[in-house]
Design a protein that fits this description.
Layout lengths: L5 E4 L6 E4 L2 E9 L3 E2 L4 E9 L2 E12 L6 E13 L2 E9 L9 H4 L3 E9 L2 E14 L5 E5 L5
Antiparallel strand pairs: 1-2, 3-5, 4-11, 5-8, 6-7, 6-9, 9-10, 10-11
């Protein structure tokens, strides 16, 4: 499932509460089930309640259950998302895995597409990523849509 929530502070410094910011309608991954050296485009289709100065930051977290190794991938924006339907293409370059131990990459990872408004994190759309070796010994990633 996708985690699409807004964390806002209450006036007077009260506790945080969650309010929906986007409703994710579709998440397309092209190509999928490919090696780390292949660029990928993730297309997110969503309804927005309105986001000013929105910037998407994409990162890959290898071995997220143990020693998280975060690899920054791309940034898209800023852009205002008025209330209504939107589509954004997140163009992911080849992933540089230099310095990350192969055994860490072979564990489950998460591709995080995080929407910010200015410097405030609003939404994280998380794609669980399974990594395995193909017949040539190359690492292959299979990203799972949060809607499946």
């Amino acid at each position: 499932y996708s985690f699409c929530t807004l964390l806002t502070g209450r006036a007077g410094g009260g506790s945080l509460h969650m309010a929906e910011v986007i409703d994710l309608q579709n998440c397309l991954i092209e190509p999928n089930n490919c090696t780390f050296d292949v660029p990928v485009v993730i297309t997110l289709v969503f309804d927005s309640k309105g986001v000013k100065d929105g910037t998407w930051e994409v990162q890959y977290e290898a071995d997220y259950t143990n020693k998280r190794h975060i690899i920054p991938l791309t940034t898209v924006g800023p852009c205002d998302y008025e209330a209504g339907n939107h589509t954004v293409d997140l163009k992911i370059p080849p992933v540089n895995t230099e310095g990350v131990k192969e055994r860490r990459l072979l564990c489950m990872g998460i591709l995080k597409c995080v929407l910010f408004s200015g410097k405030e994190e609003l939404v994280s759309v998380n794609l669980v990523t399974q990594v395995s070796k193909n017949d040539e010994g190359q690492l292959v990633r299979l990203m799972m849509s949060p809607l499946e």
